Each structure stands twice: as C-alpha cells, then as structure tokens.
Amino acid sequence: MKKILFILPAQIIQISFMVFNCQAQQTTNANLEEAKKAIAASNEIYFQAFVKGDSSIFIDRYAKDCWIMPPNAPALCGVDAPLEFFKIAYNKFGLRNGKFITIDIFGDGVEFVTEEGFWQSFDAGNKLLDNGKFLVLWKRTPDGWKMFRDSFSSDRD
Q1: Using 50, 70 and 90 to split pLDDT, how confident is the model at 17?
Q2: pLDDT at residue number 16
Q3: Buried-most residue among 5, 96, 118, 136 (CB within 10 A)?
Q4: How far apart, in whole angstroms, are the C-alpha atoms of residue 107 and residue 22?
Q5: Within 10 Å of residue 64's Cβ, how many Cβ atoms?
C-alpha cells in the first residue's frame, strides 16, 4: 500500500507537469502566430515608404532603440537611425520599391522573435538595384512588434 501511495503523488506531479507544459506550448504557438501576422503586415507596407517618399512609414517599422546594420558600413543606432537610413537609401541609392521573402520566423513570441529571409530592392523604373539576405530581430513594444536589430547583406560584389 505504501508503494502505491508513493507512486500516486509522483504520477500526479508528472501529469501536472505535462498539462502545464502543453498549455505553455499552446501559449507559445499563439504568441508566435501573433508575431508572424504582425511582421507580415509590417513587411507589406515597409517599401510603401519608398514608393510614396514618406519616411514616417519607414520609421514606424523600427523600435526606438533599434540598430540598422547595413553591409560594409557602421551600424546606425537609436531613434534617428531609421530616418538616416531612409535618406541614404532614397536619396543616394534611388530606392523606390522592394520586396521581402520571409523564409522563417522563430522564437517564443513573448518578447523577441527572429525573422530570416531574402530581399530585393528596385529603382524608380522598377529595375532591380540589389538583392540579398537578412536577419531581423523583432521586439514586442507597447506599440506592437518593431524591428530591433536589422542586419542584411547583398548577394552582389
């Protein structure tokens, strides 16, 4: 009888752990799905900033404490980084449109998630300017999911 009583509490603990773990996994999946939807929505309008020449659309994609890390250049950091990058891309390189191809988004969806994929950028004549790959660390903020660390590189020399 004592053996059965010893096993029973252990089984209760194990079952409780399994139920808790299942609920935690469901919450993680829901958080990740929410993040994926928010990122897709943000990516849909990201390049509209260049189409419309409206930096405010671009700036709103980024967290206030962001880093934008372009290839072969110093990182742009902080609240002014998105406007600085927008001006360079728009005025210096003639960026007028683009496209993101998200391959995967992973993480727990609670505070941060990572997006990986490919990008293309186009000029005013819709000619391909450049293309490459990216990793973006997204951060949940009071204003929703924002780009926290944006790192990308060209596939060209």
Answers
A1: low
A2: 54
A3: 136
A4: 17
A5: 15
Compute how many other C-beta atoms are within 10 angstroms of the C-beta atom of residue 56.
Answer: 11
Q: Nearest CA to 82 among 50, 57, 65, 58?
A: 58
Cα separation, 95 vs 81, in Å, equals: 17
Mean pLDDT of 111-133: 98
Q: For residue 110, what are the CA distances in angstroms to 25, 27, 69, 140? A: 12, 9, 24, 7
Polymer length in residues for the chain: 157
C-alpha–C-alpha distance, residues 138 and 90, integer Å: 23
Distances (CA, A) of 155 to 97, 119, 133, 134, 136: 18, 10, 7, 11, 17
- The amino acid at residue 48 is Q
Calculated CA dihedral for residues 9, 12, 16, 18, nearest 10 degrees: 110
Q: What is the structure's pLDDT at 22?
A: 46
| Percent share of the chain, pLDDT over 90 | 80
Q: Are 132 and 151 in contact (CB under 8 A)?
A: no
Residue type, 42: S
